[in-house]
Design goal:
The structure holds two protein chains of two kinds. Among the domains of chain A are: 421-461 and 636-788, Aldehyde Oxidoreductase, domain 4 (2-Layer Sandwich); 483-629, Aldehyde oxidase/xanthine dehydrogenase, molybdopterin binding domain (Aldehyde Oxidoreductase, domain 4), CATH 3.30.365.10. Chain A contains 20 helices and 28 strands. Chain A has a seven-stranded mixed beta sheet with strand order 3-5-1-12-9-10-11, with helices on both faces. In chain A, α15 (509-521) packs parallel to α16. The longest helix of chain A has 27 residues, at 549-575. Chain A starts with 14 loop residues before the first helix and ends with a helix. The mean pLDDT of chain A is 97. Chain B is α+β, with helices and mostly antiparallel strands. Chain B has a five-stranded antiparallel beta sheet. A four-stranded antiparallel beta sheet of chain B has the order 11-12-13-14, with helices on both faces. In chain B, a hairpin with a 7-residue loop joins β13 and β14 (211-212). The chains are: A alpha+beta, B alpha+beta. At the A-B interface, α20 of A face α11 of B.
């Protein structure tokens, strides 16, 4: 391993510009003559728009235009789309209601977009918004799953009179019923996976620009996948043909999924730029982010696990209701279906699984992918179930898991996934050792002496990452393929530019991708630059989400590098007057086998461009290669997290005392960055388990619309993490990478809840397990004890 | 934020004059840690802001006999770091150190906090728990008469707090259970003992703001020990309820925080 190659903990090269304030984010971009947009949003969760009177507002200082849904319709701008088709149990397609970028006749959640006010300054736009007179006829709201499914519930979209988007299922119902019929024990659980607000540090922003000379639109935007944004804005929404639309996603300050989607504001800014003849800028404030960024999770689940007399799992039956909000966001339908149910087998041998999912419209913000997307929900179900099942049987939860682990690979689960490789016991052993599980009893006694309750919780998670083989996802309803592209441009002096379809919004691609190039081409890290996020520079790519940039994005780069080396050998053969088959490439030099004749990589690059040693008929000049890499399988990162908590029964405060994470990410490019990803993921997972929860009241008002009421995880909520790794390299991509971006957020919630319930001797605690909820559970336990 | 006029008087008298002239549309700007965010969110729109930051004689910390005088414009960080406060009333310095975050503590003032009387603010509990006197440009108001309800005080139009006088107690401590999200006091209990007088003041929990607990005080007068509070409880009626804490839970926490405050005051 070289100091900058694969496996080296290289410091992030991009951090210098970020921490010195030199980053270039969308809000840092200002175009000459730029005007500012402010979105007038619905104060009601559900209402008919009777009339929008803009006359007074239009006359105000600085106002350039006020546009509504009627203007969008007049320009034949289409609605926002959901790009993953899900079919009902009976084979009929899901019921997708219209999703106009500005409301047309009806608003469906608080924060829904009613009009855009474009003015010389943001303040003027905001002032004018207060003068727009909207007459609403308010309608009853359905702010949660139960209210939306109740008989006589308000109908949110006419296309779905029962507010059900789809009734979907996966697995073999008959086989599962048979497994339950012969079960000796059945464990049952009701679970709520709490709704979360993504809260990236940088809020969404957009600058739309139109060049009347060339007819080209440019959208600067906070996107995780600028090419997909361009495709959707072009082919479906109809802003402009793709070659007349450039999308630039510059530095992006976090996304966690929420910046995958194509939203109303970005669409309106680019459309309005032409309409008003001025660049149009919008930057979300934090309240708008709470109201209108796609939220995550929000499942209500009943799950049952069938066991034989030896405690082996026979079957799993899961019924989930998923809240998708008021409209179907870009990939919303895939999250509670194909990103969820195929992971319900966890790390376990489960012969039969059947999962039913009802997706529900409510008068709340749209719900879509958020760090982990479906997999945290699945992991929460299976890891809570196995924990409770072990306790009900009086078995040690670690032994119970081990007994049911998948040990033979490849392993075909009953729910689509074919696990390629893994060693689940190895992660469990290492985690138990690092967590000093054997002395837990002593620590528990010590806590008891101080009047505290101590508990230990496991989470043995698995996820499907590196999404994904295009044919496979296409057969499941995806509207796109999920390959990735790369272009490796070698300059005449031997420096390298890599153009990637992946997009870094915090992941450190500029460092890790350069490490791969440095490793493979034997050139220093500072001779490599990574280019991403601009559809005019980079060939079509699919973007960054689902822990795919390493496994898929870097595999594409590796493939392009192989082509560069192959071409370099041809060039070197001419330059060294040898036959191509005799050229070796190693440590940055092309050499002729068995001789001392060699050329450095940079010298070969120069030969490729000056083309003096070969004719154009023999070989094309230049050294630049492109690759499109389509994976052959998902990747399956897995691991074991162990959380140890101490609870103050007087106040209900839960303190996480220890956290051990042992993850198998296959080959790791930069262990420092991977560890950082694990830390961040755990923080978000602990946030879900203990702190965060989006709460709408029954009228559909978002109560947690600011940090006054929405509890973000903070440094002092978290312990120092003990992070370890095991490795079974992934066989399905050339680098052996599995992906690490979501693991912590997937693993953490059940580990925390299993630890709290272990401490309390109580199985019923909802997330977030706030001090109030824990205190209430303590009261219940004490009452139960008193009664016994 | 809406447009407003801005004045920066040099004396309390000038400030009072400007406040009177502005009628109901004027607002005093001390540390601005509540007022400015509220204005930015367009929830407040005073026509005139009268900035007190250059007014002479409104700052400073002084021990006069057995009384600690703190100027109204004294910042939380200065109270927290003051050797005089740490020596005279360490519980008050500790309270100031726990307000908000470093940015808030280096801008926010004691006078501003008291005048605002946020039901979840910390200082009102100290004023009530120590039996402080609020001094204004017009009169002296005992803390017991000052805090009249949520965001409401005995201050009259044109009245400006100039300082707060705290009698130095033998023992005092504050124990706060922070709201998990905002970290304002969800329940905060200040306990003060001076001679035979014991005061127990609660912030964060009451629907009408800070209040005292006569039953707790009586029990602690008999014996100033956490055990004296065993068996005592606070009724949930009249306490705040929200997504973070029900009135029942707040009532329970008052008891827990009161005991912890007593232990802290006793150096336990």
């Amino acid at each position: 391993m070289s100091a900058t190659g694969i496996g080296a903990p290289v410091r992030r090269t991009e951090d210098f510009r970020f921490i010195t304030g030199k980053g270039q984010y969308t809000d840092d971009i200002n175009r000459a003559g730029q005007a500012h947009a402010y979105f007038l949003r619905s104060p009601h969760a559900h209402a008919d728009i009777v009339k929008i009177d803009t006359s007074k507002a239009k006359a105000m200082d600085g106002v350039i235009a006020i546009l509504t849904g009627d203007d969008l319709a007049a320009d034949k701008i289409g609605g926002l789309i959901c790009g993953w088709m899900i079919h009902n149990k009976d084979g009929s397609p899901m019921r997708a209601g219209g999703h106009p970028a500005l409301a047309q006749g009806k608003v469906r959640y608080v924060g829904d977009h009613v009009a855009v006010i474009i003015a010389e300054t943001y303040q003027q736009a905001k002032d004018a918004a207060e003068a727009v007179d909207v007459t609403y006829k308010t309608l009853p709201a359905a702010a949660d799953i139960d209210s939306a499914l109740k008989k006589g519930a308000p109908v949110i979209h006419d296309v779905a009179p029962d507010n059900t988007v789809f009734n979907w299922h996966l697995g073999d119902k008959a086989a599962t019923d048979a497994a339950f019929a012969k079960a000796k024990h059945v464990t049952k659980l009701d679970l709520i996976n709490n709704r979360l607000v993504p809260n990236p540090m940088e809020p969404r922003a957009a600058v739309g620009d139109f060049d009347a000379g060339t007819g080209v639109f440019t959208l600067y935007t906070t996107s995780q996948n600028p090419h997909v944004a361009r495709l959707v804005l072009s082919a479906f929404i109809g802003i402009a043909p793709e070659h007349k639309l450039r999308v630039i996603a510059p530095d992006v300050g976090g996304g966690f999924g929420s910046k995958i989607f194509i939203y109303a504001e970005e669409t309106v800014c680019v459309w309005a730029a032409k309409k008003v003849g001025r660049p149009v800028k919008w930057t979300s404030d934090r309240t708008e982010a709470f109201l209108s960024d796609a939220h995550g999770r929000d499942h209500v689940t009943h799950a049952e696990m069938a066991l034989d007399d030896k405690g082996r799992i026979l079957g799993l039956r899961v019924n989930t209701k998923a809240n998708l909000g008021a409209y179907l966001s870009t990939f919303s339908s895939s999250v509670p279906t194909y990103l969820y149910a195929p992971l319900l087998s966890g790390q376990y041998n489960i012969p039969a699984i059947y999962c039913e999912v009802d997706a529900v419209y409510t008068n709340t913000a749209p719900v879509d992918a958020y760090r982990g997307a479906g997999r945290p929900e699945a992991t929460f179900v299976i890891e809570r179930l196995v924990e409770v099942a072990a306790r009900e049987r009086g078995e040690d939860p670690a032994l119970f898991r081990r007994k049911n682990f998948v040990t033979q690979f490849p392993h075909q689960t009953p729910v689509i996934m074919a696990y390629d490789v893994g060693n689940y016991s190895a992660s469990l052993d290492k985690a138990m050792d690092m967590a000093d599980v054997k002395n837990f009893g002593k620590r528990k006694k010590e806590s008891e002496r101080h009047g505290k309750l101590r508990g230990l919780g496991y989470s043995a998670y698995i996820e499907a990452c590196g999404i994904a083989p295009s044919q496979a996802v296409g057969s499941l309803g995806a509207g796109v393929g999920l390959w990735e592209s790369a272009e490796v441009r070698v300059n005449p002096v031997g420096t390298v530019e890599v153009l990637t379809g992946s997009h870094s919004h915090g992941q450190g691609h500029e460092t890790t991708f350069a490490q791969l190039v440095s490793d493979r081409l034997g050139i220093p890290l500072d001779q490599v630059s990574i280019v991403h996020g601009d559809t005019d520079k980079v060939q079509f790519g699919m973007g960054t989400y689902g822990s795919r940039s390493g496994a898929v994005g870097m595999s594409a780069i590796a493939q392009a590098i192989d082509k560069v080396i192959a071409k370099g050998k041809k060039v070197a053969a001419y330059a060294l007057e040898a036959s191509e088959g005799d050229i070796d490439f190693k440590d940055g030099r092309f050499s002729v086998k068995g001789t001392d004749k060699s050329l450095a990589f940079g010298e070969v690059a120069l030969q490729a461009y000056i083309a003096h040693k070969f004719s154009g008929q023999q070989l094309e000049p230049g050294l630049k290669e492109t690759a499109f890499y389509d994976p052959t399988n998902f990747t399956f990162p897995a691991g074991v997290h162990i959380c140890e908590v101490e609870i103050d029964p007087d106040t209900g405060v839960t303190r996480i005392d220890r956290w051990t994470a042992v993850d198998d990410f296959g080959v790791v490019i930069n262990p420092m960055i991977v560890e950082g990803q694990v830390h961040g993921g755990i923080a978000q997972g602990v946030g879900q388990a203990l702190l965060e929860g989006a709460h709408y009241n029954k009228d559909g008002q978002l109560v947690t619309a600011s940090y006054m009421d929405y509890t973000m995880p903070r440094a002092d909520d978290l312990p120092s993490f003990a992070v370890g790794m095991t490795s079974t390299p992934c066989p399905s991509n050339p680098l052996g990478i599995k992906g690490c971006g979501e693991a912590g957020a997937i693993a953490a919630p059940p580990a925390v809840i299993n630890a709290i319930t272990d401490a309390l001797g109580h199985e019923n605690i909802s997330m977030p397990a706030t001090p109030q909820r824990v205190w209430q559970a303590v009261q219940q336990s004490q009452r139960k004890l008193a009664a016994e | 934020m809406y447009a407003f006029n801005y004045q920066r008087p040099k004396t309390v008298r000038q400030a009072a004059g400007l406040l009177a002239k502005a009628g109901g549309d004027g607002k005093l700007l001390a540390g601005g840690q509540t007022l400015l965010p509220t204005m930015k969110q367009r929830l407040a729109s005073p026509a005139m802001l009268i900035d007190l930051n250059q007014v002479d004689g409104m700052g400073g910390i002084e021990l006069k006999g057995r009384n600690l005088h703190i100027g109204a414009m004294t910042k939380h960080a200065d109270v927290a770091n003051s050797h005089i406060v740490k020596t005279a009333i360490p519980g008050l310095a500790a309270l100031a150190e726990g307000i908000g975050d470093p940015a808030v503590r280096n801008r926010g003032t004691i006078g501003g906090s008291i005048a605002n009387n946020d039901p979840a603010a910390d200082y009102p509990a100290a004023c009530l728990g120590l039996g402080a006197t609020i001094v204004t440009n017009k009169r002296k108001i005992p803390a017991d008469e000052f805090f009249t309800g949520m965001f409401d005080t005995a201050l009259e139009d044109g009245e400006i707090i100039t300082k707060v006088i705290f009698p130095v107690p033998q023992k005092a401590a504050y124990e706060k259970f922070p709201n998990p999200a905002s970290r304002y006091a969800m329940v905060g209990v200040f306990v003060g003992k001076k001679g035979s007088d014991v005061r127990v003041a609660v912030t964060g929990a009451g629907a009408n703001g800070v209040f005292r607990l006569p039953e707790f005080e009586a029990a602690l007068k008999t014996r100033f020990n956490a055990k004296s509070l065993d068996g005592l409880s606070v009724p949930a009626d009249g306490l705040n309820g929200d997504i973070h804490a029900s009135p029942d839970y707040r009532a329970h926490l008052i008891g827990v925080m009161a005991k912890r405050a007593v232990n802290k005051a006793l150096g336990k």
